[in-house]
């Protein structure tokens, strides 16, 4: 009986320790740095055609930016990358827009304070406020806008690109953890239970 009680305390200690570790991990994930550069695209108007043009510009710019943000270590470096690629980004956006209407101008600029609402990326919460952003205005820029976080490169999450692979990876990881830790811990609890009844 004495050993069974000791086993129970050890088991409780392991469970509590694992729970506290998970809590710390979640808290770390919820912390969001303010060092971010966002993307905001204003469509010409709210017509179906202009909204489709906006979405195509969004996809083109998000994919291009993600390719160049993958290994950028800081917001300072990210800012330099965007500043040096503004002409290329504007040209890519123009190509999309002018495929539909070559009379619409496209303006691309990097602005210090642009107003944004709150956005959630999984456990990460980006609160509403004024943030640095790459702003794209199509034509009059009076239609609905779309935005995401370019640095860190989270725009592809909004577009659903890479989510399937990420979810599959998480599922595989959970399965591996269960295979590694589940049976061993279950067997340990079973031993405690058996000792209690035998005592």
Layout of secondary structure:
Blueprint lengths: L1 H29 L6 E6 L5 H22 L5 H24 L7 E11 L2 E3 L2 E3 L2 E10 L6 E7 L3 H5 L3 H36 L1
Parallel strand pairs: 1-5
Antiparallel strand pairs: 1-6, 2-5, 3-4
Helix pairs in contact: 1-5, 2-3
Descriptive key words:
two-stranded antiparallel ribbon, four-stranded mixed sheet, 6 strands, 20% strand, 199 residues, alpha+beta
Description:
By secondary structure, the chain is an alpha+beta fold. It has a domain of 121 residues. The protein has 5 helices and 6 strands; from the N terminus they run H-E-H-H-E-E-E-E-E-H-H. Strands 2-5-1-6 form a 4-stranded mixed sheet, covered by helices on one side. Strands 3-4 form a two-stranded antiparallel ribbon. Helix 1 runs antiparallel to helix 5 and helix 2 runs antiparallel to helix 3. About 11% of the residues have low confidence.
Strand content: 15-25%
Give the mean pLDDT.
77
Overall geometry comes to globular
Radius of gyration over C-alpha positions, nearest whole angstrom = 25 Å
How would you classify the helix and strand content by structural class? alpha+beta
Low-pLDDT residue intervals, each spanning 5 or more residues:
19-32, 162-169
Short note summarizing the structure:
It comes from Geomicrobium halophilum. By secondary structure, the chain is of the alpha+beta class. Helix content is 58%, strand content 20%.
